[in-house]
Write a structure and sequence with these properties.
This protein has 424 residues and is α/β, with parallel strands linked by helices. About 3% of the residues have low confidence. It binds beta-D-galactopyranuronic acid. Beta-D-galactopyranuronic acid (GTR) binds next to helix 7.
């Protein structure tokens, strides 16, 4: 008789993709595209040529082949649903703002939860990030509205029939040290990503996409936005609102995201230069990790498990990474000259920590065009020893998650760069 525990173990092992490679020795030889060679063969030697010629080329390739092109910015509308100048025992001013994504109050909307520090001067610099299960999961604050959007079921969090409930209030607070962020003089804004586009496999008949379909269209064209591009587009709509809010320093907005939402924060930073600093936490394949290494999660694997995240053109690169006209170091380079931080976790091998480091490192030549230090470490830093220039990188101990350790580095990184610019 096979014991139940053995059976569970066997089933768990069976669930691990058999084709995933975790052996550095088995990484295929590859040549990365050079961010500094233009499509006409010209070499980029100055920041002007980068900004006006090469950068737009790379951005267009990512749009067409990887994430898909999002619609132009609409004029948004918004309503302040609720605010409290003495939230969290007086530490913060809370605002909950409904942003109407196409400017029509009968159309789709997302709710932005904002805390601003009361102790420091306004306008306040701000971190913004999407969350996985609803704004009310990020903090133990009974005043935060519970989303009515589709949410992934999660028994542990009390989410059944795809509806968030009171039971999940604060369940993800460990990923959002809001009081600490406030005490350090920053605001925090967060949005439930499913308000923009539900993360339900393969469906494009709900969320934001149908609002932009041409007559008769039922699915984005091969080069049109997948879900990651939609979530990033939503972050830009939040930015539109921040620009209209005098309490927020819109030239000091830092976009941060974890995992699929780390892929999203990178794409938001690439497509929208209004984000002053960009942070990727454990973003892995299709985020910071180099695709050509095929370590852990691969292009084929991600396109199979999550066919809706990227544009359909990206599927051409399943088991065919060398044909990609870009790789993810060029995504990091699109942030230049803005500061960008890439974070890995030691046990998060699925996301390929070394591939995340190398991407950050190989973005360096672009930063050097601006006379900036890139990532001040030629070797992969040791666990718990961040390397920080205009590009920052760390690998911490532990699993795929966002921890206080990660946030401490992000706050320090933001402080350092805003100080340097005389902005804090
Ligand atoms: C995993 C996926 C990763 C990462 C993660 C997450 O299942 O393979 O690429 O995005 O989900 O977002 O939690």
């Amino acid at each position: 008789m096979i014991k139940l525990s053995t059976l569970i173990l066997l089933l768990a092992v069976a669930a691990i993709p058999q084709d995933a490679n975790y052996d550095e020795a088995k990484i295929p030889a590859f040549v990365l595209p050079d961010p500094l060679i233009c499509s006409d063969g010209a070499k980029v030697t100055d920041s002007q040529t980068w900004m006006h010629k090469r950068r737009p080329e790379i951005l267009a390739l990512f749009e067409k082949q990887v994430y898909g092109k999002a619609p132009d910015a609409p004029v948004i509308a918004y309503d302040l649903l609720e605010s409290d100048a003495r939230a969290l025992g007086g530490l913060a001013t809370r605002k909950q703002v409904r942003v109407y994504l196409i400017g029509d109050k009968k159309g789709p909307f997302m709710d932005v939860l904002i805390y601003l520090p009361n102790k420091t001067q306004r306008p306040a610099p701000l971190f913004v990030g999407l969350n996985f299960y609803g704004n009310h999961t990020t903090i133990d604050d009974p005043a935060v509205f519970i989303t009515k959007s589709w949410v992934r079921n999660n028994k542990e969090f009390g989410i059944v029939d795809h509806r968030a409930t009171e039971a999940s209030r604060g369940v993800r607070a460990s990923r959002w040290p809001i009081r600490r962020i406030l005490r350090q003089g920053y605001g925090l804004a967060t949005i439930y990503y499913g308000d923009i586009d539900p993360d339900d496999e393969g469906r494009f008949d709900n969320g934001i996409h149908p609002w932009f379909y041409k007559k008769g269209q039922t699915h984005p064209a091969p080069d049109e936005w997948g879900s990651i591009a939609a979530w990033a587009w939503g972050l830009s709509r939040a930015m539109d609102y921040f620009e209209a809010d005098d309490d927020i320093a819109n030239e000091r907005v830092i976009v941060m995201g974890h995992s699929r939402l780390g892929k999203t924060s990178l794409w938001a930073g690439a497509t929208d230069k209004r984000f002053a600093i960009v942070i990727s936490n454990n973003s892995g394949c299709g985020g910071a990790a180099l695709s050509r290494r095929r370590f852990g999660e691969t292009v084929k694997r991600i396109n199979t498990s999550f066919p809706h995240w990227f544009c359909d053109n990206f599927k051409k690169y399943n088991d065919n990474e060398e044909a990609l006209p870009v790789d993810q170091h060029e995504l990091i380079a699109l942030m230049a000259p803005r500061p960008v931080y890439v974070a890995s976790a030691e046990e998060d091998r699925w996301a390929d920590p070394r591939g995340e480091f190398l991407s950050a490192k190989y973005a360096e030549p672009v930063y050097q065009l601006f006379g900036l230090q890139g990532l001040p470490s030629d070797e992969m830093p040791e666990v718990g020893k961040p390397a920080v220039g205009t590009i920052g990188y760390h690998i911490r101990s532990g699993a795929h998650d966002v921890t206080l350790y990660d946030w401490r580095q992000y706050l320090r990184f933001a402080d350092r760069h805003l100080h340097e610019k005389g902005m804090k």
